[in-house]
Amino acid sequence: MKGGVGFYLAGVVMQLTLAGCAHETSVAVPGQGSYAYAAEGEVTGSIGLSPQTSEMFAPLPPIRTAKKHVYLLLGGINGTDGRVTSAGMFGLQSSLAALPDVEVTTYEWASFKKVADNIALLPKDDIVIVIGYSGGGAKATWLANGYFGGRYPKDALPRPQIDLMILYDPSPTWSMMPIQDNVKRAICYRNVTPLFFGLGGGVLVGNNTQIDTIDIFEHHWLVQMDSMLHQRTIAEVKNVQRLGDSYAAQ
Q1: Does some domain include residue 30?
Q2: What is the pLDDT of residues 65-124, one digit of tens each?
Q3: Burial of 205 by CB count in 10 Å (0-12 exposed, 13-18 middle, 19+ buried)?
Q4: Integer CA distances (angstroms), 169 to 71, 74, 201, 247, in order
């Protein structure tokens, strides 16, 4: 009888010991009311909570649409009379300004240096378009070469990047400069019969750039009012693409 009691007490002690070990190796799981037992030899610890939705899916910054900037250089005899002698170009200005994401600024041709200054301030992804009529067309080639007076090329400034250049019967012919590869694409409405006291009839040439020459036959004064040319210009502005990743001058 005594041996049976001793054996019984030994069994009770063993069960209590095992129960105590099991309690020591249990791991509390956050958010649950019971214990989960860790396997022998595993490192135990608390389980972190899942990240909040606001941390997992941070809002993306808005996508910026590249704006097209049209710089319109007027014609004129002395560079200050463009608003009178180039009245037909203001119809083109209104049509271009009505296009989405297009900004149009008009200048007298004598102020073409301001165009270069304004281009330098543009965001790198924006699109640059230069349009010039008569004297404004000739000065557009100076702008493209960074030439604003003095000896060329010694006194030239860095050349601005231009995605599209469109010249309406540029004049005078002797004032035209060849353009370079900082102009992605150029179109020249070359007047074969300008009939205006030696003005008009300028020809655009260039190095390592695409130039499309469109021959026209009309009085120099009437070119600015040619609705067919304006429609082509509007279509070209709609289709123009960005030149590159940066507008840093060459």
Answers
A1: no
A2: 789 999 999 999 888 888 899 999 999 999 999 999 999 999 999 999 999 999 999 998
A3: middle
A4: 17, 12, 6, 28
Q: What is the pLDDT of residue 62?
A: 64
Choice among 27-41, 95-109, 200-214, 221-235 with the minimum mean pLDDT: 27-41
- The β-bridge relationship of strands 183-191 and 68-73 is unpaired
Could you give the CA distance from residue 170 to residue 20 in angstroms, rounded to a whole number? 99
Please give the structure tokens belonging to residue 26: 């249990």
What whole-number distance in Å separates Cα of residue 103 and Cα of residue 99? Answer: 9
Contact 98, 81 (CB under 8 A): no
Enclosing domain of residue 201? 68-239
Residue 8 lies in a domain: no
Q: What is the DSSP string of 24-42?
A: HTEEEPTT-SSEEEPPTTP
Report if pTM > 0.90: no
CA pair distance 223, 194, nearest whole angstrom: 9
Domain count, the chain: 1
- Dihedral of CA atoms 15, 20, 24, 28 in degrees, nearest 10, equals 80
Q: Minimal CA–CA distance to 202: which of 139, 129, 150? A: 139
Provide the CA 32 distance to its chain's centre, in angstroms. 54
Report the alpha-carbon distance of residue 229 to residue 181 in Å, rounded.
25
Query: Residues near 82 by Cβ (< 8 Å), separated by ≥ 6?
Result: 74, 75, 76, 108, 109, 135, 136
**CA dist list (Å): 222 to 26, 216, 226:** 95, 11, 7
Inside any domain, residue 25: no
